[in-house]
Specification:
Elements (H helix, E strand, L loop, with lengths): L9 E5 L2 H10 L6 E4 L4 H12 L8 E10 L9 E8 L5 E3 L3 H11 L5 E8 L7 H7 L3 E5 L2 H10 L5 E9 L12 H12 L1 H10 L6
Parallel strand pairs: 1-2, 1-3, 3-8, 4-6, 6-7
Antiparallel strand pairs: 3-7, 4-5, 4-8
Helix pairs in contact: 1-6, 2-5, 3-7
Length: 211
């Protein structure tokens, strides 16, 4: 009988009910905790900090996921964004682990989908119009309201692997009015459901647990 410690758990954090539904449908196999944080950076910070304070999730690897707005021309709904780092509105950055592995696994999970890598920036509101080009000029490729706060809160609770994968639901040439009522929202839901196994592969590849 091995005395090796059990692998640290995986916490997947999202903001919206529709995101949680997609993730839970995709996570029918394998141990995982899917946390719905609520919208916005403050809600994400509170929820993640509270969850990681629970004994069962202490030391958990954290994946921030859900939908995002693409910033670069040529992005389309259903494209994937793998963060090399997340950046909060105040400029604080959190580096992500396993980017190359995630890209490989995502390309296998949803063949034909474009996977973008780069900086995923945070906002405290929905970004529209000219704000896209302003954020693109900072070097970011996509924006959402929760990923940066999620990962920053996670590493503040202790050293752990973190990553962020987002599905583009809104892009410069494809602005979304309401999730779930247009083709872009439906496409993003299906992609998010399909990529959950890639999160498990990322988790299994890590040298866990961490101290």
């Amino acid at each position: 009988m091995s005395d090796a410690p059990a692998p640290a758990p995986l916490l997947i954090a999202c903001a919206l009910g529709i995101e949680r539904l997609a993730l839970r449908k995709g996570a029918r196999r394998g141990p995982v905790t899917v946390l719905r944080t609520g919208m916005g950076p403050r809600a994400a910070e509170r929820s993640v900090t509270r969850a990681l304070g629970e004994p069962a999730l202490r030391g958990a690897a954290v994946m921030a996921t859900g939908f995002c707005a693409g910033l670069a021309p040529g992005m389309h709904p259903g494209d994937l964004v793998v963060a090399e780092e997340t950046r909060g509105p105040a400029g604080a950055t959190t580096p992500c682990e396993g980017t190359d592995l995630l890209v490989k696994e995502l390309m296998g999970a949803v063949p034909g989908r474009t996977v973008h890598t780069g900086t995923l920036t945070g906002s405290d509101h929905v970004v529209r119009g000219h704000e896209r080009s302003e954020l693109l000029a900072t070097g970011a490729i996509a924006v959402d309201m929760e990923s940066a706060a999620t990962l920053h809160s996670a590493v503040r609770r202790g050293a752990r692997p973190v990553a962020a994968v987002r599905v583009v639901v809104d892009a410069p040439e494809h602005e979304l009015v309401r999730i779930g009522t247009v083709r872009g929202g439906i496409s993003a839901f299906r992609v998010l459901r399909a990529v959950v196994p890639a999160f498990f592969e990322w988790h299994r590849s890590l040298l866990l647990p961490r101290r």
